[in-house]
Design brief:
By secondary structure, the chain is mainly alpha-helical. The chain has two domains: 68 residues, no CATH class; 71 residues, no CATH class. It is built from seven helices and two strands; from the N terminus they run H-H-H-H-H-H-H-E-E. Helix 3 packs across helix 4 and helix 5 crosses helix 6.
Length: 151
Amino acid sequence: MGRISTINAEQFTICLTSEVSAFSNAIYYSPFHVYTAFNRLLNSQRQSCWKNLSILLNKSQQQVKDFYYNSWVKQFSPDLNVYKSELLLQILCNLNAGTNQKDIARVVSEQFTRKHQEKQFNVKTVNQFVRKLMNNPEYIYQSNSENLVAV
């Protein structure tokens, strides 16, 4: 089996900057400004970026997208561990309110990112973090008809 080669973050940033600049006719001096501009592109423009980046980086479009969403964008999100207590409380409140357990991570992530819009959290990153919290054996949720406690 062949070893999966990784994408170099610096090379990715340079290529993404070039692609985003081509659509916006602007020059970007920081990865954060590239990230912000990329998020403002039309869906069709982002699709074009994925295609071009895959060629430039010699990777599949899926590998490029996965790297972007699972690695590169995380540099712009504040540390979610700071918000761990708030997220646990949000999980408990939603369970107590009768939210379907399958929907908890999505619902909590949406509520949290809406509440903290100014921090520009990535919904997928928050969702992953909430799922980790819910699957952590340290936080086993038990509920009965009226009470919900973290053990």
